[in-house]
Design goal:
By secondary structure, the protein is α/β, with parallel strands linked by helices. Helices cover about 30% and strands about 25% of the residues. β1 (about 1-10) and β2 (about 10-20) form a beta hairpin. The longest helix is centred in the C-terminal third of the chain and has 19 residues, at about 180-195.
């Protein structure tokens, strides 16, 4: 089946039409910068532009960069406070002339793609899919089943800030870290989460996963760490898979 997948991020909004059988993108990926401020109206208007760009008239799956429960935004994340309490699926549906939208957390959906068709396929036990971008996203899967809205990026660093401010890709850029310096920070985070949860495996997604080969040797955590098979497209693909699942 062909489905439009949209990945709303803190910095960019990306979309493509996906073949949900194998996760292939059957169009070029289209990117529009996330509006600033990222209010509900401003983001919904970009979503409408995406739908128009692809001349899309079917179901839409959508990744959202914060906590989402039954289509409703529960936290402002790195967007704007007006989002809290908004039914995101209803807002996008109304903005896009009634197209059905299925919306969930971005890392949960990137994870869905990886566990269904990618690096975590048929892996038993506990897996964390961690997306590294503007923020840190985390998807927890147990025997292939999603346990939604686990927010590892929001645990506290010893400096009192949330850990994503220290280990996200945006922190690497802000602090002008080399890949090695950043990877050492990130490694400590992976070690801490390993002590807390004893996962079988980590899968790393987000923009920086494209550079996995260059930083993997700086990671010392003693469980398998794999790059997301779908790299930074995992969210778009997972969103499309989610829409198919929910539309049944
Ligand atoms: C949010 C997560 C989200 C992640 C990646 C974090 O700031 O708390 O829900 O998955 O950013 O977008």
């Amino acid at each position: 089946m062909k489905v439009l997948g949209i990945d709303i991020g803190g910095t960019g909004i990306k979309a493509a039409i996906v073949n949900t059988k194998n996760g292939e993108l059957i169009t070029e990926r289209h990117r529009i910068s996330t509006p600033k401020p990222a209010t509900p109206e401003a983001v919904a208007s970009v979503v409408k532009q995406m739908v128009a760009h692809f001349e899309w008239n079917g179901i839409v799956g959508c990744c959202f960069p914060t906590i989402v429960v039954e289509g409703e935004c529960k936290h402002k994340g790195n967007l704007s406070k007006e989002w809290v309490g908004i039914k995101i699926d209803t807002l996008f549906k109304t903005t896009c002339d009634g197209l059905p939208f299925y919306v969930s957390n971005d890392a949960d959906l990137a994870g869905l793609a990886e566990v269904s068709l990618g690096a975590g396929k048929e892996v038993k036990g506990k897996i964390f899919v961690i997306t590294i971008g503007t923020g840190i996203g985390s998807g927890l899967f147990y025997n292939g089943r999603l346990i939604p809205n686990v927010e590892l990026g929001r645990i506290y660093h010893t400096n009192g800030e949330i850990i994503e401010k220290h280990v996200a890709d945006s922190a690497r850029k802000r602090d002008e870290l080399s890949l090695e310096q950043w990877a050492k920070r990130f490694d400590l985070f992976l070690q801490h989460i390993k002590t807390l949860h004893t996962p079988e495996m980590y899968i790393l997604g987000g923009g920086i996963s494209k550079k996995f080969k260059k930083f993997k040797n700086f990671l010392t955590v003693d469980i398998p760490v794999k790059p997301a098979k779908f790299r930074n497209n995992a969210g778009i693909i997972g969103a499309a898979l989610y829409a198919v699942k929910k539309n049944k």
